[in-house]
Fold:
Amino acid sequence: MSAKTVTIKENILGANSEKAEINRKFLDSHQIRMINTMSSSGSGKTSLILRTIDSLRDKYRIAVIEGAVASFIDADKITRQNVPAIQINTAGGCHLDARMVKKALDALDLDRIDLIFIENVGNLVCTADFDLGAHKNVVILSIPEGDDKPYKYPVMFVEADVVLVNKIDVLPYFDFKLDAFPEIISGLNPSAKVFPVSAKTGEGMDRWFSWLEETLT
Amino acid sequence: MHEQSIVESILTLALENAEKANARKIVSISLVVGNYTGVVEDAVNFYFGFLSKNTIAAGAKISCTHVPGQLRCRDCDKLFPLQKSDYHCPKCEGRRVEIVGGRELYIENMEVE
Structure:
């Protein structure tokens, strides 16, 4: 049999994007908003989510989907606050995908939830390439990581609706130029908001909470 | 482990398209890979080797055409390649840029029998 060339030109991540769109519609039908948080390891994602739950739990019924390469440490921290948490262990995989998130959604009691946070696997490289079906993307960058990350991992920041610059309580000890940082982000992504915060001291967190509440209404 | 899930998607797409074309064997697959995707050709080949076992894609050769990162100045529209440190338009010194190339990740075509 002779060889022939078949033209395809199909996006390799297309199937994931389709599943993500189905997730989003599924959530809409349950009147749930889902927020995907992405960052490198150790930026303070879990602490930020816990602090946010503390502030909003009287108004919204919240659940968390935790992605990690291994372990249940983060999900345990969340469930100790009496908030439902589903742990996805990717078994070495460096990102969550829409199929994994659908499985987690199926394990939650969706009639009793208004807001879901996804804590993606700690990784600035590829998590943003995989649409999960969330309504908003939040990127967390902490002061010790340095202000050059948008240049090193631009895709992450291009996909962000909000960039939370966490750990501003340690700003005096690092060279992070916080005043100039919002301009770097707006250059790459004019619609992204930048909120400097400290999940530890609570500084700046009100602006983040206000943005979240606006998103939810 | 990034490439494993990517290769699973490549294989699914390739097998679907091979079936549509009534092919008995996939000889080679050409990918277009943007430099911002972080997909490494050697790793793709490595995972494809064992994921394609017992399929009509077994032994297929994977080749990648790499697309360099490209930026567009939002102020003067100048197109320029990804720079090492920060983003500066070489024409107007503007710092507001849009990524217009380097995020591609698709199967261009494949050769089948």
